[in-house]
Amino acid sequence: MDRLSLKGMQFYGYHGAYEAEKEMxxxxxxxxxxxxxxxxSSQTDDxxxxxxxxxxxxxxxxxxxxxxxxxIQALAEAIAEEVLAxxxxxxxxxxxxxxMASIGGIIQAVEAExxxxxxxxxxx
Length: 124
Known about the structure:
There is one protein chain. By secondary structure, this protein is α+β, with helices and mostly antiparallel strands. The chain has one domain (2-122): GTP Cyclohydrolase I, domain 2 (2-Layer Sandwich), CATH 3.30.1130. It has helices spanning 19-24, 39-44, 53-66, 72-86, 118-122; strands spanning 2-13, 26-36, 91-98, 110-117. The radius of gyration is 16 Å and the shape is elongated.
């Protein structure tokens, strides 16, 4: 299985369980690993056979910046569902980080990671 990754996408969103997070917002970071058979594009060097990084980025940007979630797990789930529904991949791993999470202490980041196969979305 082949993997394509988009790492360190940075956005500003209004996600969290606390009102302050929803009102003031905060930086949100997202990584995505796309897994599938990408041999046709890698062997032919044909852009038309490849997954569009721009399309993936646009999906993530829209969900992070235009929607609101209480939990970063729910945001990660929405990203996974949308990517699987829109792209020809077998599996996706999504990592969503809040580097400025409001927990009352010093922390590098809070991160949710989930992996979903295409069958989760397709209902197979």
